[in-house]
Amino acid sequence: MSQPTFETILYDVADGVATITLNRPDRLNAFTPKMMLDLLAVFDVTDADDAVKAVIVTGAGRGFCAGADLGSGAGTFDAGAREAERRAAGDTGDLSRDGGGRLTLRIFQSLKPVIAAVNGAAVGVGVTMQLAMDVRMASDTAKFGFVFARRGLALEAASSWFLPRLVGAPTALEWCYSGRIFPAAEAKEHGLVRSVHAPDDLLPAAYALAREFVDNAAPVSMGVTRQLIWRGLVADHPMEAHRADSRSMRARGASADAKEGIASFLEKRPAAFPDRVSKDMPDLWPEWVEPEYR
Questions:
Q1: Distance between CA atoms of residues 141 and 196, nearest Å
Q2: Between the N and C ends of the chain, which has fewer C-beta atoms within 10 Å?
Q3: 156 Cβ partners below 8 Å, 6+ apart?
Q4: pLDDT at position 91, please?
């Protein structure tokens, strides 16, 4: 299967793992309307391709993503100028909505595990886009910053929802009030990142983790688990999670994957799970109204 090409990102699939590389290294991969559109499109590709069982997102060159491209100067975030720029990039969505939020909502909906391999500076939308990813791993040269207040802005990309759930409200407020840049070690101390690595070890470590997923778990089970965990965060009562879990056990217990998983265990061999995310995902949350990320 030929891989699609994009203007602002690189995309590759090998051995079940898709790698998305933000690719504006001369601008430290600063975020633009076109990058938003490319990322929205590529997550549609990863969800639809059963050859993809896990996704890694990283950056080209020295940075992960230096935030919004400020090349337009003081008017960068002016609504009129921003909407004109988005139209010029081909954006046909709701221009009144924050573009970073449209991206994080799309990542939230992903049916595949998503790992961020943060290889350098990750500030503004460069860090908030990671919050809907499942695992964040960082180089020891990476730096993070929720710098919005220092630019006269406030939070975007649905980070007011994601960030306190990941690190707690006090840490989230401290980082956002100060707007300071902080190192990967501090991000790890507060649970924003899973692990910190030497620069040359970061991507190998991310691929090793992805291999644990790809080589051992049923893809549909991972997709179901991802949705159970993320959607469970907004459930009003554990009973909602119990109902969804019960639907999951009923659907997956009768699946070909479950039969293969048990047989492979008893026969002491690797499993070859037959179900596919593109056609075998059960509906566990019939009452769920999917947010429109576009």
A1: 9
A2: N
A3: 98, 100, 101, 125, 128, 148
A4: 79
**Count of positions (residues) in the chain:** 294
Nearest to 53 by CA among 226, 259, 232, 170: 226
Percent helix, percent strand, percent coil in the chain, to nearest 5? 50, 15, 35
- Give per-residue pLDDT as tens, 93-141: 787 788 899 999 999 999 999 999 999 999 999 999 999 999 999 999 9
Confidence class of residue 285 from pLDDT cuts 50, 70 and 90?
A: confident
Please give the domain boundaries of the chain with CATH numbers for all domains.
9-214 (3.90.226.10), 217-280 (1.10.12.10)
3-state secondary structure string, 100-131? HHHHHHHHHCCCCCEEEEECCEEECHHHHHHH
Question: Which residue type is seen at 254?
Answer: A
**Which among 124, 115, 15, 4 has a CA at the least distance from the CA of 57?**
115
241: Cβ contacts below 8 Å, ≥ 6 apart: 228, 232, 235
Contacts of residue 57, Cβ cutoff 8 Å, sequence gap at least 6: 20, 21, 22, 114, 115, 116, 117, 130, 133
223: its two tokens: 């997709």
Q: Is the pLDDT of residue 74 over 80?
A: no
What is the phi/psi pair of residue 10, to 5°?
-105, 150
CA separation for the pair 226, 228 (Å, rounded) = 6
Q: Is the pLDDT of residue 24 over 70?
A: yes
Q: How confident is the model at residue 60 (pLDDT cuts 50, 70, 90)?
A: very high
Q: Is 86 within 8 Å of 99 (Cβ atoms)?
A: yes
Please answer whether residues 29 and 60 qualify as being in contact, where contact means their C-beta atoms are separated by less than 8 angstroms: yes
Under 8 Å between Cβ of 120 and 138:
no
Asked whether the beta carbons of 17 and 58 are under 8 A apart, the reply is no
